[in-house]
Every structure is written in structure tokens, then in C-alpha cells.
Task: structure prediction
Amino acid sequence: MRHSGISVAELKSLPTAANSKLITDILSSTSDTEAAAMVSSLSKQGIIHIDSVIANAGTGETFESTLLTPMDELRHYFEVNTLGPIKIGRAHV
Result:
């Protein structure tokens, strides 16, 4: 599996601080439940604190003006690019 051109193995080979680890996973930005489910899974693994989250998601396939972009596409972009990170922020360990 690759994230943004860098493999998970390459990411995991980076140095980490003592008593820390890098966890990679994939979430759907349009799901209302996946972020909370991931946090629940991490809690069950004994993870009680997260220092950093890199929410590397985004979409934008239409390069027309907003006046010409269909509303359903604008809604999808808003869901992924705006609400997706908010959903991650609301999920807590």
C-alpha cells in the first residue's frame, strides 16, 4: 500500500521517539462513523494519546468556476475537504 507516493514500509522505517509509534490507516472522508470506529479500535489496543494526525485527503475534479460546478459535486467536495477533517477532529482517544 502506498500513501502519496511513499510506501507504508518507508514511513514505518522513519525514526520515532521513545514509547511512540507510527500508525497508518485509511478512512473514508465521507463516512460519519469510520473515524470514531478507528479511535475505538486504537483505544482497545491500549493507545490513550495521539500526538499528531496527518489527514491527507482531498478531492477536486472539476476546475470550472463555482458558478458552473454542479451542486452535487460541490457538496461532495465540501464533504471530503471540509467535513472529513472535522470528523477526524471530533473522534477522541
Remarks:
- The chain has a mean pLDDT of 86.
